[in-house]
Write a structure and sequence with these properties.
Layout lengths: L1 H12 L12 H7 L9 H14 L4 H6 L4 H20 L8 H4 L3 H10 L4 H20 L3 E6 L2 E4 L5 E4 L9 H7 L1 E9 L3 E9 L1 H9 L6
Parallel strand pairs: 3-5
Antiparallel strand pairs: 1-2, 1-4, 2-3, 4-5
Helix pairs in contact: 1-3, 1-5, 7-8
């Protein structure tokens, strides 16, 4: 369900680097990791990593073979358990998804299942719902396309490059097409970088502009 996926993403964001890449075999490592990569979202990439790790029984060998930091994965798993316990204590399960996103997401997922939509369509719908949930938390962390791998934040008009660790940096044309993104944080070094990014279509983000929630 969507709530579980969101908890996974939140938990993965609280850990140290999930990936490690020995420089001598960088190309080989990148080929191995292709199965995780979501072309438009670092957040969904983290979700893919966690799910596949669990599907492979949290195997230490599997983590090593895919150049993943097992300690970070175990830490994310522990954080997720703590979050679930906390939510259960405050009876979060009684809250409807309408309280979060102005639509009942659970009903939408049930509708998808009833209509027997293909797996790919189903996946796309779920990913869109996840992005909508992320938007509720990151609606002030919006940036607009400026040039390849360069975006301008709406909050303070800072010109930022996408961080080199982001998957998005390899496909700059997608940023030009989709035009907007949300990010976790800005890294300040010799210049500003947006870290942990997800591209977002304008139709998903439009209501935040209309309601003046996004500082422009």
């Amino acid at each position: 369900m969507i709530r579980d996926d969101i908890l996974t993403i939140i938990s993965m964001l609280q850990t140290d680097n999930i990936f490690y890449t020995p420089s001598v075999i960088k190309e080989k490592v990148e080929r191995i990791r292709e199965k995780f990569i979501h072309p438009t979202s670092d957040h969904l990439t983290l979700l893919n990593v966690y799910k596949q790790w669990k599907e492979n029984r949290s195997s230490q060998n599997w983590s090593r073979d895919h150049f993943l930091n097992e300690k970070s994965l175990l830490k994310a798993e522990d954080i997720k358990k703590q979050l679930k316990n906390y939510l259960n204590k405050i009876q979060h399960s009684r809250l409807s998804f309408e309280d979060i996103e102005n639509e009942n997401m659970e009903n939408l997922l049930n509708e998808i299942e009833k209509k027997n939509i293909s797996f790919q369509q189903d996946t796309n719908k779920k990913e869109e719902l996840i992005i909508k949930c992320l938007l509720t938390g990151y609606f002030t962390n919006v940036a607009r396309y400026n040039s390849d791998n360069v975006f301008v934040t709406y909050k303070d008009k800072t010109i930022c490059k996408i961080h080199p660790t982001s998957n998005l940096i390899k496909q700059p044309k997608l940023g030009r097409t989709i035009e907007y993104l949300i990010y976790n944080e800005i890294i300040y070094t010799n210049r500003e970088y947006l870290k942990m990014c997800t591209l977002v279509r304008y139709d998903l983000i439009k209501k935040y502009f209309d309601s003046n929630l996004i500082i422009s």
